[in-house]
């Protein structure tokens, strides 16, 4: 079915607001919360720590696996209860030891990870305050704090800042493998895939411990996936899951394996991986959202809705909100869909307060369900800042939806043509290109790309997959042209 189009007043923003730059946001947060340098700076940050809680009658049960401090500082996925315990421990410790630079860095990094796991951007200003406190205490040779700032910038989708902080950290400690992983993410977000591949090569050459190798393999899998090397990506993440040391770590890699299976259209295999991840770590909400996708593709839509709702209860990511809204829309449940789109607006506002850049997902929403012109404005700005493949695809589709298929095709080619950087085998990206080509009268290419989208993943979207089949049917069979005379 075609998407229900809302009127101009239902756009996420009726008029483009004046937006603060990332640098200005960071400066404002620091000035408001940190106070002046020296002792006053410590007081400013300490005042933001939650008040100490009375000790419970019994200490909480320890999370399975190694101590949370190890997992946070080693770049290995940690269990959410362990993160919570670590944050509480570091907050209490810093009230009496406010000049411990390492403790501030660990606390800041833990805030980043908790914010990422829970989609609660309120953790990110706290993370920045703690990491800046670490740098005030140890302004030089503090790779751990710089690495934490790089992780924070990645979580906020500020890949330029992540690159800057990560490269500084790597200059200080060239053998710190976790910094390489953060830089790969930053380079990918900036569309610098050559730098991402080169950084992975350097990471793979480092000597890492057996406990660290699964995380390195998982990072390699992500790069291989971006290059279109599906089998290599699947092999790397399978090995990572098989050798992971803790249930939370294994669950994280199983979720990625499930995502790879989903992207190639294997609904059953994807569901098995997602379910296994949730059994190991019930807080693995990304795997719950993956279950929702797979269940919907299998026709178990009531279960899919329930699973999405459960995922959103623990990790209300704007992306998952959008997915649930589109699932409702595909089922003809338009009031429920509109409620999700309203929630997306609220989540975007909350994320902005935490310094998170949601322009990509907002642009995707606006292109299909709101104001395509607003989508173009946002996504052009995003492309100027960080021209990754995902942004190229979204901008191309927004241009198409706003009535400019000629320029749209330029970006769709960037997202799908390996010679222009688009190595990811994405059914959605190829579908977008096929629809744009059909509008331009390039029927042979459109037919080829729409067919490819359905071959890559016949279930790639509860709305768009059906649209792809209708469009392909409307194009008919290729013309039986006579052979050229020689």
Number-wise, the strands total 0
Number of helices: 25
Low-confidence stretches: 1-40, 54-66, 481-486
Structural class: mainly alpha
**Average pLDDT:** 88
Q: What is the CATH fold-level name of the domain at 372-477?
A: Serine Threonine Protein Phosphatase 5, Tetratricopeptide repeat
Largest sheet: none
Terminal-residue CA separation: 47 Å
Helix percentage range: 55-70%
Radius of gyration: 23 Å
Shape: globular
What's the SSE pattern?
Answer: HHHHHHHHHHHHHHHHHHHHHHHHH
In CATH terms, the superfamily of the domain at 372-477 is Tetratricopeptide repeat domain
Indicate the CATH architecture of the domain at 372-477. Answer: Alpha Horseshoe
CATH class wording of the domain at 372-477? Mainly Alpha
Strand content: under 5%
What do these coordinates show?
- The protein is mainly alpha-helical and 486 residues long.
- Among the domains are: 210-311, Serine Threonine Protein Phosphatase 5, Tetratricopeptide repeat (Alpha Horseshoe), CATH 1.25.40.10; 316-357; 372-477, Tetratricopeptide repeat domain (Serine Threonine Protein Phosphatase 5, Tetratricopeptide repeat, Alpha Horseshoe), CATH 1.25.40.
- It has 25 helices and no strands.
- The longest helix has 20 residues, at 334-353.
Jot down its keywords.
25 helices, mainly alpha, 486 residues, disordered C terminus, Serine Threonine Protein Phosphatase 5, Tetratricopeptide repeat, disordered N terminus
